[in-house]
Amino acid sequence: MAGAALPPLMLEDDEAIATVLGLRLAAAGGTGIGLTAESAERAAAKLRRILPASLRRRTDEVLAAVEFGRSGHPQINPTDLSAVASAIAAHRCLAFAYSRKGGPSSRTVEPMRLVQIRQRWYLYAWDQGRQDWRNFRLDRIADLRATGTPFRPRPLPADDLAEHLRARFHGRKTIRTVLTLHADVRDAAARLHRIDGSLEACGEGRCRYVAYVDSFEWLTVVLAVSDIDFTVDETAEFRDHLVQTGQRLLGAANAGR
């Protein structure tokens, strides 16, 4: 019965469509949180049943036309995400083990924000041991626990943390190149030696790669060793670079015959 467990939902047409699309995106892993596909699909089905017939048809038309690519990134445990959010709200320190290329380390931090960038979740916090701001990938955090120690929030270094972190990730990489990779997102993420940007599904067996690099040479090497076919969407300069590189390599191969 409507209202038995939740208050009746008074949704406008566009709000209902947005809600159903959001649930389907969650089912596909697009939120980056480990919500099971079954749970999200059940919620979408329940909402669909109470929609008026005309709105149900519109919603079905949108869903039939949209294809969500499965995320290739690790999914975050909702329990960990909730624990971090609670610590941020209560201004309580967190302790955890953090894994990175240099090996695991123990961290105690003052958590400030959760930020999602490129389908990954990051904790932005003041690291008490390093005495500086640090960002931590949530999928690399283990043994998370609240210490109970309160802290006074420090002024953040930027108003837009997402853009601040993007700039830090990109560093001096200022060249933007857009490619269509002839592989799905999961396959591309596994085969690319390094991802300097974002991957987004754009059809069956294809994905859009927006790369930010400091040189065309580096991107060329990464694409060559990945053995993924691709099409250059932007820029013309990168197309010219590939043509010149290809001609030079062909010339070298033919000269040895």
Structure, explained:
- It is a single chain.
- This protein has 8 helices and 9 strands.
- The chain is α+β, with helices and mostly antiparallel strands and 257 residues long.
- The chain folds into 3 domains: 13-65; 78-156, SH3 type barrels (Roll); 171-249, Alpha-Beta Plaits, CATH 3.30.70.
- The chain starts with 12 loop residues before the first helix and ends with a helix.
- The mean pLDDT is 81.
Main-sheet strand order equals 4-3-2-1-5
Gross morphology is flat
CATH class designation of the largest domain: Mainly Beta
What's the Cα radius of gyration? 23 Å
Average pLDDT, rounded to a whole number, is 81
For the secondary structure, the number of strands is 9
Q: Which structural class fits the helix and strand makeup?
A: alpha+beta
- Indicate the low-confidence ranges by residue numbers: none
Biggest sheet descriptor: 5 strands, antiparallel
Strand fraction: 25-35%
The name of the CATH topology of the largest domain is SH3 type barrels
Total of helices: 8
Order of helices and strands: HHHHEEEEEHEHEEHEH
The number of domains: 3
Quaternary form: single chain
Percent helix = 40-55%
Distance between the ends = 80 Å
